Amino acid sequence: MFCAKCGNQIPDGVKFCPNCGEKIAEAAAQTIAEVTQTAETAAQNAVQNVAEAAQETVQEAAAPVVEAAAPVVEAAAPVAEAAPVQENIQQPVFQQPVYQQPQQPVFPQQPQQPAFQQQAFQQPQQPVYQQPVYQQQPVYQQMMYQQPQETKKKKSKAPLIIIIILLVLLLAAGGLFAWVNFLADDVPEALSFMNVLNKGNDLPLSEKQQKEFTKIVKNMDQAIIDTDGDAYAECIPTYAQKFVWSVYGETSADAFVKYLYGDKDNGIAGLGDDLKVSEEIVSVKKISDLDDLAECFDDVFDKSIEFEAAYLVTNNSCFKGDEDSEKYVDYYLFFQEEDEDEWNVILIGEENLEKFNLKK
Description:
Blueprint: H1 26-68, H2 70-75, H3 77-82, H4 158-186, H5 188-198, H6 207-225, H7 229-233, H8 241-247, H9 253-262, E1 276-286, H10 290-300, E2 307-320, E3 325-337, E4 344-347
Antiparallel strand pairs: 1-2, 2-3, 3-4
């Protein structure tokens, strides 16, 4: 029997393992003994069965041979009787397995604790107190109080600076006034721009539109100075040209510009040579009823137009020569058709406002 814990072989009937001291249960010991006996009996029976099976197999295989050799056997019977042969069947030997006792695990030795050397405690040295050496206190000298001298008050220059600033502002205002008067005769569009500022920029036009409208009218007036009827006609739509010539009772572009240039009462030739022109937009009225304007165009020009926008512009054309200068007020209709960026213009005159249902 073997120990269940350490595997050491122990004699039967022992309650404790002599090797590890484990308690051996009686039932376990008896069970082991029965199992061992059963195994031995089974082994013997197996060996005996194998032997019997082998013997039967040999006998069956040798039966024909025995019958064939019967006469020979009978002939050899005397010899066989003289020398009988005894069969010796060797029984198989059952070897019981040898149980090897497992080796006990080898545990590493516990590391050796280091030896600590006790250090000798040195008592700290007490500091040596040295008494400070006091220096002799300084001798304070009493200061003599001196009464401050009275300073003379300086006069302020602020009033003088204010007077100078006021004089400079007055001079600047006078110069600006003189400059504006000069521009009134020479460059009226600059004065017009100042008037727009004074009015709070109440013109319903953008700065770009004001510049564009002023440029168009200036080209028309320059064509009058040059007496170039073709240049004037290029500024007006073809379907409205006859209407424009009729404003001053003319039938062609050349006759129209010659009348405005050379008429002794209304012409600009009397202003002298080296004529120059500048423009000043006096007022602008945006036309809100574009459908009504389209009907007027259909009646006056027999032309159907879809308007995008339209303005009635009152403009001062300022002509100046080497002898005199003059301003001419006239009414222009600026309009823009749908899906077009270009602005068109028609000179309609004051007496033709009613034809387009327009007022000053």
